[in-house]
Amino acid sequence: MGLFRTKTESSTPLEGVDAVLADLDGVVYAGAHAIPRAVESLNLAKQDRAIGYITNNASRSDASVAGHLAELGLDVVPNDVVTSPQAAMAMLAEHVEPGALVFVVGGEGITAELEKRGYRITRSADDAPDAVVQGFTPDIGWRELAEASFALNANGGPDAATPGIPWIATNMDWTIPVARGIAPGNGTLVSAVHTAVGRFPLVAGKPETPIFDEARRRFAAERPLMVGDRLDTDILGARRAGMLSALVLTGIDRAKQVLAAPATSRPDFILADLDGLHAPYPVTEQIRGVTRVGAARVRISGNRVEIVADGGDELDLLRAACAAIWDSGMGIHVLDVPARLYS
Question: Same domain for 215 and 199?
């Protein structure tokens, strides 16, 4: 794990990595604009390894996403983009053959992938669909959710002896960032259908492993590095899939969240931004009860997290504090953590 290296020389997070899988919002761009140094860092990394873009966003096709990224200046083609609808197609193929009729809750991101694979599409439960695939678009309303419920309950439902037709959700993100703030995401809409049908869908997107498995196959990656801004999707999913992971502090989760990260969602690397991929990653050392990263030193005394030396580098101080807290085995809720570590 990157945070707990004990070798004497630092190396970059890219050492030995044959593919970088980057989340998009909060990692590559924020709103309409690229995050500073993101484009340059990813294009540089692509000189020596594959670069993939892995997204739970089901509203756009891979070509649409690639076009947006190219406009930002990235060297990218549609095949570099792995979407949750693509992962959903791999799951769908395990249940129904091409030519099957699929009820869709969602937009272009799902329909484009279904058409590529020879599935037929319907928006009516009366057509007796063979499966349901659900993803997010801003236009989804009550009627679409009700129609999906009718389709799923036609041969199943809470009181039925059989489970009904296959139901695959592209992702379960509870929220989605939009220009005006945080809004309900696909997980919220899936939950509404779940309430009506009494069962859960199969899930393709992060933090579930199908989307990571699709990316690994796509790029023939043996040692990929997932880079994300969310512990509960990007980092948790990477760990479940057996991948290295790096958290960048340019998006959703910041110092407060990473200090409190459960064991299942702790990244191998903590980076300020994507530029950190190319910088030597400092060694973490444990010396007589003190955790040292660079010149920063932190220790746990009883239930108190103590800053022995801040070292003049806020990121190294955060790394040292994370290593000390995580290694202590104590939950963040019982620790007295200095506010300066997370403010």
Answer: no
Extract the tokens encoding 333: 């809720």
Are 90 and 185 found together in one domain? Answer: yes
- Torsion of Cα atoms, 243 then 277 then 272 then 38, to 10°: -110
Q: Which residues pair with residue 300 across a beta bridge?
A: 305
As to burial, measured by CB atoms within 10 angstroms (0-12 exposed, 13-18 middle, 19+ buried), residue 242 is exposed
Question: What angle, 0 to 180 degrees and rounded to 10, lies between the N-to-C axes of helices 84-92 and 108-116?
Answer: 40
Domain count, the chain: 3
For 77, the 3-state DSSP assignment is coil
Backbone angles phi, psi at 204, to 5 degrees: -95, -35
Domain extent, residue 300, equals 282-343
The verdict on residue 69 lying in a domain is no
Three-state secondary structure call for residue 313: coil
Measured distance CA(243)–CA(223) in Å, rounded: 7
Residues annotated as part of the active site: 23, 25
Place 343 in a pLDDT band, splitting at 50, 70 and 90: confident
Confidence (pTM): 0.91
